[in-house]
Specification:
alpha/beta, 7 strands
């Protein structure tokens, strides 16, 4: 039979473990959820200049988390380039957040594909702000008011995304 002291000690250890685990979790569990304001951030572009998401309030933003080694990401980027070309003047701004470890392959990729929208170097912290970026690609469609309209996990169907964007641009 377990003594009271041992049982109490085990209970305290479990409680401390739970408290430690909860402290590691982001405080805002609603980050990155549809209907909430998109968490603001400032990240360096490949040029080194900072980009702050709040500077794009008033535009429809497609925030794309991607990486050069991600095949579905690579496949959808030409579609994003076309969307930015077609709808940029109407208020669309695509922002790519690369989750690559270093900027060198990202710079080469951007040159190869002649990317026409800002690309930032992401990190674990930005991923946590958006509810955890555990797989790629993940895209957030953000309305002109700064609220998250949709979260898309996996490769996007560009024609379907275009319909969503056109609807938001008309609002």
């Amino acid at each position: 039979m377990i003594s009271r002291k041992r049982l109490l000690a085990v209970g305290i250890v479990i409680l401390l473990g739970i408290l430690f685990f909860l402290r590691l979790k982001p405080l805002n569990h609603n980050s990155g959820k549809q209907g909430n304001f998109a968490p603001n951030f400032s990240l360096p572009q490949l040029t080194g200049a900072p980009l702050e998401l709040s500077g794009y309030r008033g535009k429809v933003v497609l925030l794309d988390f991607w990486a050069t080694w991600c095949e579905p990401c690579r496949e959808e980027i030409p579609g994003f380039i076309a969307l930015q070309t077609t709808y940029g003047r109407q208020g669309l701004q695509i922002i790519g957040v690369s989750m690559d470890d270093t900027p060198e392959p990202v710079r080469d990729f951007c040159k190869q594909f002649d990317m026409n929208y800002p690309v930032l170097m992401g990190n674990a912290k930005i991923g946590e702000l958006y509810g955890g970026v555990l797989g790629l690609p993940i895209a957030f469609l953000i309305g002109r008011d700064g609220r998250i309209i949709a979260k898309h996990i996996g490769a996007l169907n560009i024609p379907d995304m275009e319909k969503e964007i056109v609807t938001l641009l008309k609002q």
